[in-house]
């Protein structure tokens, strides 16, 4: 998704901006650009379609030095990916602007601005903001006031970075619904949509809050709230290391991240279980009192994180906890009945997903008991706005298709199910058994990774296919959904997941020799049911690709492609069975030669709705 970097310093900021863009590449984008103000007060703009390297090449051939500048990676929303639509956008020679998010009322504003004589070069909503600020700048003679006036007229969710040739000592930023952070240096200041972009230049940050407009100079900054009042926002020191993520010996980040899972699952459990018990303090010091009052849980998330929530529903209901799970983009616009005692649980790798954040805010406004964020980024908006947090410790995930973030989310949700179950009669010895299964999890995931070569061989059968069907039952149904999502995200093969019991209600009509059918089969009470479902596929000439618990594999060997996943306790089976499906998607994508870590059209962090 779009990324912003901006800098005001006593040195040339172009290398800082370029490095910041490189560090935001993992979020997904289709073009990049930079604008700097040079010593003669000219705005120099360079833009390129494709990778940041294309912009870097452009700058190498024709440098654009300056002590004030803004830069951007664009993920197209309004208008195709092209140089014309890439940011920064300008209004004449006066104002340059970068923008994340969406301006909903851009059409009305555009008509008004055309009426005032402004000419538009792009198809974007962003250009409207550049002209609107330029228009107010003529009236106000002051960039900060011009931005404040313009922001007051915009609807939507956005963040902005703005510079003007009339004010070489000023960088103005605004946040309304899209994350933006100020980086504090010594005699220099920065803005970015993600702290990671700025870690080479500072560890000290101030996170802008909703409606804030910030006025940065080399020596300091001031922040004004939506009403225009001067406000102080807390300073934070980032604990993240500045090191750029490194693929090590792996060909892709995704494969590296898949193989990191035993270690990051162990990290996520570290200090949270002891002597066969989950330590409730891992949810925060106020957690025990909140958990005592929980009557039901609403889980809300997007994408892969939503699938983690779907698995958790099985686990919570097993413990007698009523639970609903929904994608955030639906939840935020429904009127969910938030009964007394509702704990709102959001799950997000990034903690910046616009719909998930909006759902959290609407649940809080509707009076939920409390909010818990299960998240991988400590400084994220979701964490800052939730009462309770349980951090996954997956480390930075670079591959757009989420892997280790998902399995660590499952571990965190398993802990939640246990602490809520404890309040509904989960006996100490039952808890100890669940905790023991969690303790075995890193080793079992390691064993599942041992299937890598066999899965790579299996992937050969998918190279020419256009569709695939994934099946699972019970808590393995969402695992099948996640397997299908992984395959479609990175190999571009159309893949759908069904609860195996639904097969005969439609998808069976699609089954023939050209439709590979993938199924995950743990050793649990539903095995016999799954056997019957798979017979239905075989009888129609469907080719079966099975991942089965070694305890039940003998039922399925004949006439199928079968890989055995060891014997796994049912309470953690969704975590272990996810691993071969991740590997399958990965190897099929490699076979097809796609951009595994940055698949087309997708973004890592979706900060627009
Ligand atoms: C994007 C990413 C997915 C991710 C989803 C939710 O679509 O490509 O990998 O699952 O957003 O992101 P979140 O950060 O909220 O987990």
From TrEMBL:
Gene3D superfamilies for the chain: Glucose-6-phosphate isomerase like protein, domain 1 (3.40.50.10490), Glutamine Phosphoribosylpyrophosphate, subunit 1, domain 1 (3.60.20.10)
CDD domains reported for this sequence: GFAT (cd00714), SIS_GlmS_GlmD_1 (cd05008), SIS_GlmS_GlmD_2 (cd05009)
Chief place where the protein resides: cytoplasm
GO CC terms in record: cytosol
Enzyme class, first EC level, given as a word: transferase
Catalytic activity: D-fructose 6-phosphate + L-glutamine = D-glucosamine 6-phosphate + L-glutamate
SUPFAM superfamilies per the UniProt record, alphabetical: N-terminal nucleophile aminohydrolases (Ntn hydrolases), SIS domain
EC number per UniProt: 2.6.1.16
Alphabetized GO MF terms: carbohydrate derivative binding; glutamine-fructose-6-phosphate transaminase (isomerizing) activity
Domain Glutamine amidotransferase type-2: residue ranges: 2-219
SIS domain mapped to chain residues: 286-426, 458-599
Domain of life, source organism: Bacteria
Residue positions of the active site: 2, 604
Pfam family membership, one: SIS
Keyword list, A-Z: Aminotransferase, Cytoplasm, Glutamine amidotransferase, Repeat, Transferase
Subcellular location per the Swiss-Prot or TrEMBL entry: Cytoplasm
GO biological process: amino sugar biosynthetic process; carbohydrate metabolic process; fructose 6-phosphate metabolic process; protein N-linked glycosylation; UDP-N-acetylglucosamine metabolic process
Function statement: Catalyzes the first step in hexosamine metabolism, converting fructose-6P into glucosamine-6P using glutamine as a nitrogen source.
Subunit structure: Homodimer.
The name this protein goes by in its record: Glutamine--fructose-6-phosphate aminotransferase [isomerizing]
Lineage: Bacteria, Pseudomonadati, Pseudomonadota, Gammaproteobacteria, Candidatus Competibacteraceae
């Amino acid at each position: 998704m779009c990324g912003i970097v901006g800098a005001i310093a006593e040195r040339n900021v172009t290398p800082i901006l370029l490095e910041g863009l490189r560090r935001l590449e993992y979020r997904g984008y289709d073009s990049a650009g930079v604008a700097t103000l040079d010593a003669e007060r000219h705005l120099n703009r360079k833009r390129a379609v494709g990778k940041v390297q294309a912009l870097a090449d452009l700058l190498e051939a024709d440098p654009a030095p300056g002590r004030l500048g803004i830069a951007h990676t664009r993920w197209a929303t309004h208008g195709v990916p092209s140089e014309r639509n890439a940011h920064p956008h300008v209004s004449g020679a006066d104002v340059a602007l970068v923008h994340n998010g969406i301006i909903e009322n851009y059409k009305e504003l555009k008509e008004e601005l055309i009426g005032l004589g402004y000419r538009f070069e792009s198809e974007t909503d962003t250009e409207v903001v550049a002209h609107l600020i330029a228009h107010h700048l003529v009236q106000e003679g002051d960039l900060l006031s011009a931005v404040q006036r313009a922001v007051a007229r915009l609807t939507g969710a956005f963040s902005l970075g703005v510079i003007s040739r009339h004010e070489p000592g000023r960088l103005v930023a605004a946040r309304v619904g899209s994350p933006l952070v100020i980086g504090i240096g010594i005699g220099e200041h920065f803005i970015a949509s993600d702290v990671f972009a700025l870690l080479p230049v500072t560890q000290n940050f101030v996170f802008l809050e909703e409606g804030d407009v910030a006025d940065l100079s080399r020596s300091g900054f001031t922040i004004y709230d939506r009403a225009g009042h001067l406000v102080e926002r807390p300073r934070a020191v980032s604990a993240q290391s500045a090191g750029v993520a490194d693929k090590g010996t792996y060909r892709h980040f995704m494969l590296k991240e898949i193989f990191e899972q035993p270690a990051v699952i162990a990290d996520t459990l570290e200090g949270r279980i002891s002597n066969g018990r989950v330590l409730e303090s891992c949810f925060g010091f106020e957690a025990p009192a909140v958990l005592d009052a929980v009557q039901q849980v609403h889980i809300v998330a997007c994408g892969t994180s939503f699938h983690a929530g779907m698995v958790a529903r099985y686990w919570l209901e097993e413990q007698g906890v009523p639970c609903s799970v929904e994608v955030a983009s639906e939840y935020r616009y429904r009127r969910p009945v938030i009964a007394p005692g509702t704990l709102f649980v959001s799950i997000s790798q990034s903690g910046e997903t616009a719909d998930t954040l909006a759902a959290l805010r609407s649940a809080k406004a509707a009076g939920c008991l409390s909010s818990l964020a299960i998240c991988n980024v400590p400084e994220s908006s979701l964490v800052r706005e939730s009462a309770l947090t349980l951090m996954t410790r997956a480390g930075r995930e670079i591959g757009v298709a989420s892997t280790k973030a998902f399995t660590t989310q499952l571990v965190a949700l398993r802990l939640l199910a246990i602490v809520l179950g404890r309040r509904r009669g989960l006996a100490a010895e039952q808890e100890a058994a669940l905790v023991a299964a969690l303790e075995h999890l890193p080793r079992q995931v390691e064993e599942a990774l041992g299937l890598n070569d066999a899965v790579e061989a299996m992937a050969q059968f998918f190279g020419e296919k256009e569709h695939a069907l994934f099946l699972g039952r019970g808590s393995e149904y969402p695992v099948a959904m996640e397997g299908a999502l992984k395959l479609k995200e990175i190999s571009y093969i159309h893949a759908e997941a069904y609860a195996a019991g639904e097969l005969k209600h439609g998808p069976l009509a699609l089954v023939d020799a050209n439709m590979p059918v993938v199924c995950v089969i743990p050793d649990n009470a539903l095995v016999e049911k799954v056997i019957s479902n798979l017979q239905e596929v075989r009888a129609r000439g469907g080719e079966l690709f099975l991942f089965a618990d070694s305890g039940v594999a003998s039922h399925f060997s004949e006439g199928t492609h079968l890989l055995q996943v060891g014997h796994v306790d049912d309470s953690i089976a969704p975590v272990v069975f996810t691993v071969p499906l991740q590997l399958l998607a990965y190897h099929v994508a490699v076979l097809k030669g796609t951009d595994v870590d940055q698949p087309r059209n997708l973004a890592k962090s979706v900060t627009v709705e």
